[in-house]
Amino acid sequence: MNATREELSEKGKKRRDFITLTATAMGGVLAGSIAWPLLQSMNPAADTLAESITEVNLAPILSGAALTVIWQGKPVFIRHRTQQEIAEAEDAPMSALPDPQTDKSRVLKPQWLIVTGICTHLGCVPLGQKKTEPRGEYGGWFCPCHGSHYDTSGRIRKGPAPTNMIVPPYTFVKEDLIRIGESS
């Protein structure tokens, strides 16, 4: 029983197809096993994800007082504004603001101002969270590094800072509880 040349050629072709298919599949598995850890390494670390949302109880913060919390490694200033501070922020003429924004566009509730506590000029942390610290000419915050003055809405009023303090995304979970890092 000798096989003909055509039968041997057909068997060889099937064998080559099988080897090609097997090699391609193994190459795909190898590429996936290399790519998966590489892609996973680009995801945020667990400690970063844990810092992505911060909840803050506002009940202990008295009117006129402030609190600093850390969110994503940055200071966040929370100020329980007095009626006078709210009035000053609302009455500021837009023409006097280098980066015009209304106070209402920066707060969810007028008595609570929440801003990232970083000067927008060079990334310093401005003074003004404690009552004993200088708050600048507009009663908000003062960055002594280059003289930026912010008002009671965290808007730049004087100095080299190009923009207002950033308002982080936040929501009121309850009357006196906010969640920073999640917008409404």
Structure overview:
- The chain is an alpha+beta fold.
- The protein folds into 2 domains: 1-43; 49-180, Rieske [2Fe-2S] iron-sulphur domain (Rieske Iron-sulfur Protein), CATH 2.102.10.
- It is 28% helix and 23% strand.
- The protein is built from 3 helices and 9 strands.
- It has helices spanning 5-41, 46-50, 83-91, and strands at residues 54-57, 66-71, 74-80, 112-116, 139-143, 148-151, 156-158, 170-174, 177-180.
- The strands form 3 sheets. A 3-stranded antiparallel sheet has the order 1-9-8, with no helix packed on it. A 3-stranded antiparallel sheet has the order 2-3-4, with no helix packed on it. The chain has a 3-stranded antiparallel sheet with strand order 5-6-7.
- A hairpin with a 4-residue loop joins strand 6 (148-151) and strand 7 (156-158).
- The longest helix has 37 residues, at 5-41.
- The radius of gyration is 30 Å and the shape is elongated.
- The model has no long low-confidence stretch (mean pLDDT 89).
Topology, element by element:
Elements: H1 5-41, H2 46-50, E1 54-57, E2 66-71, E3 74-80, H3 83-91, E4 112-116, E5 139-143, E6 148-151, E7 156-158, E8 170-174, E9 177-180
Antiparallel strand pairs: 1-9, 2-3, 3-4, 5-6, 6-7, 8-9
In short:
The protein is of the alpha+beta class. The protein contains three helices and nine strands.
